[in-house]
Amino acid sequence: MKYGYFDDAAREYVITRPDTPYPWINYLGEEDFFSLMSNTSGGYSFYKDARMLRLTRYRYNNVPTDAGGKYYYINENGDLWTPGWMPVKADLEKYECRHGLGYTVITGKRNGLLCEQTALVPLGYTAEVTRVKFRNETDKKKEFTFFSFVEFCLWNALDDMTNFQRNFSIGEVEVIGTTIYHKTEYRERRNHYAVFSVNANIDGFDTDRETFIGLYNGFDDPDVPKAGKSRNSIASGWAPIGSHSIKVKLEPGEEKSFIFVLGYCENPEDQKWECPGVINKAPAQKLLAAFRTDEQFEAAMQAMHAYFEEQLSNYQAKTPDEKMNRMVNTWNQYQCTVTYHMSRSASYFESGIGRGMGFRDSTQDLLGFVHIIPELARERILDIAATQMEDGSAYHQYQPLTKKGNNDIGSGFNDDPLWLIFGVAAYIKETGDESILDEMVAYDCDASKAKPLSDHLIRSFHHVTDNLGPHGLPLIGRADWNDCLNLNCFSKTPGESFQTTANFESGVAESVFIAGMFVAVGEDYQQLCKMRGLDDEAAFADVECKKMYDTVMKDGWDGKWFLRAYDAFGNKIGSHENRDGQIFIEPQGFCVMAGIGIKEGRAKEALDSVRDLLDTPYGVSLLWPTYKEYHVELGEITSYPPSYKENGGIFCHNNPWITIAETMIGRGDRALSTYQHICPAYTEDISERHRTEPYVYPQMIASVDAPRQGEAKNSWLTGTASWTLYSVTQYILGIRPQYNGLMIDPCISDKWDGFTITRKFRGDTFHITVTNPDHVMKGVKSITVDGKAIEGNVLPVYGDGKEHNVQAVMG
Ligand code: BGC
Predict the structure, then answer these.
(1) Is the pTM for the entire model greater than 0.70?
(2) What is the pLDDT of residues 187-219, one digit of tens each?
(3) How far apart are CA 480 and CA 394, in angstroms?
(4) How remote is the CA of residue 482 from the centroid of ligand 1, in Å?
């Protein structure tokens, strides 16, 4: 069952009923200010860091779900309603939510009064701007009052929801004209405040939640909107809010609009005050002056459209598969911009408090983002590398505001360092900008320890070779990609974190996954070394990679698939000898991606085992059979009920590894079906089962042992976004940046006649037509560029900034 449809031309997902199977959200903000906005107007805003500088409140896991947001209550002759349906839930004559790229339009209609609320975070501003437009669609005059509403967060989101003995006394606001200033803690150590304002005369305001809502009411039943009159309350401690009321008269057919600005303003330390006790309002005035008129608002919307058209124009595909087109051309790329900004910090499943930016997560996110805005990818790489430690290991995450590593989720995840090589290689292949290798980058955020980025890569690589176990495979440390395979943890205490508790370093537990990854990045690493004249290091890497290849073939192979790991006692994990957890997806994907076992026929065997043992109609499960009991020697993975999360759920993140692996052995049909199974545009048809947004990937889908198989969770912030985009654009459609040009190496269904791609690459624009006259799955027999044949399948870098027509013939 569907709850809406894709409007491909507008690049919008249109939700046609408000009671979606879960709140379906959008992200507003492309720079420093961000809002999460649901299809019923729920959500919250923050500046840069969802934990440290949160502007408005949101209560996770609330009853009812998704209560709290930016609301516009309409009172027409005592009839109270909200255009987004929530929170009042009055019946609507019309409801529609259009989630677009960087904006959301929610339209509701009742009693013939149409209200359209359009929200965006305009480029260049630190504010969410909402235009609320009314139209009288009846043939009678209308008179009504409407009330805006936001609830301020006292900045630090964790403190805000825990430290009530202090917080109930510190809230401070100021109201001047139509502008409400939220200035809690400005008098002491903060140099920032929030504003909430409207571009029209108001009939009243409120800033005290208890006065506005009533102590024993909910958002659905607020006193002031119900009574139809503001009380001009000034918050003093407790819970500051922002609300305006405006009386509106509309002739039949008449329209009126109002522009609301919720903004973040900051002053330099020495310019905090206009005069003693009076906050410096200059930044607020400047911000509000930019959104006084409809023309200004329209211009901001146009700029947003143009911005995304430009970003997306770097890769556009026309294939025989309409659903693939809409994902590749719009939604998958869009999700990648969001994961770039958010990492795993703030979604409807990530509270914005628990996790900052992940070292591993953010480097992987680059794969799907680097072609969109390479300069930002560059900046991100340098920020991440600066949190690396001198021994090559890494903080697992860092705070976006301070850019400092934090140990909340520990360190010692032994795959982390290798992802840096992966990210840097992707960046240089996209841009050709080798100079990044020479950038001086701190260790542990200490500038006095800065070394060129190339040195960071060397330490990353050596972190593996310095930490090998008894079989010569990499030691796993606290965990590898699978945060929940904790082989040195042995936790028996309830509530203890599996990621930060390490009872001992066995020096024995080894990861075949890291081994595969090591070989997979090995070739890039050698190339990067050679770029900097480090030939001896490249030669060393070559030897080490070959050794690792052989080690995996010898001690990482189980007969029909690759083993997963050795535990702290040297026992096999992911072997047919085990009762549960006989086969894991990760090493099958990464070892084949590394090319291990392709020539020996083992890659095919491993992928056949994946097909036979892990495939489900909803995607490929992480492992099989699921663990039924807790295993202290395996850790968190066995703490989940069967078929959820890492215990054999369909962990979408690594499905694209299988897609890529399948393309490596030329099975385009398998690659395509793996791609399609988890693709949201395909699961749209079963939204009632799948539950999360049909336009973005979730992290996890419950697999076959779960009572709710096919049900997704953790949408938006997942490495799935970048990996699927990478797999479909670079391996299925096969347009793959190389150090020396753009490779054309598709692996598609043999039923396809071909497809076309427009790809901007290092300043040139390639219009690529791939034809498939022999109906093969893989192989390119000829390529012409602007009518001239070229050797091989790598388009050279012309660097002339021109358009080039490319004809590639498969066969
Ligand atoms: C984490 C990833 C990890 C994955 C598998 C995600 O929640 O963000 O870093 O690789 O889980 O455990």
Answers:
(1) yes
(2) 999 999 999 999 999 999 999 999 999 999 999
(3) 12
(4) 6
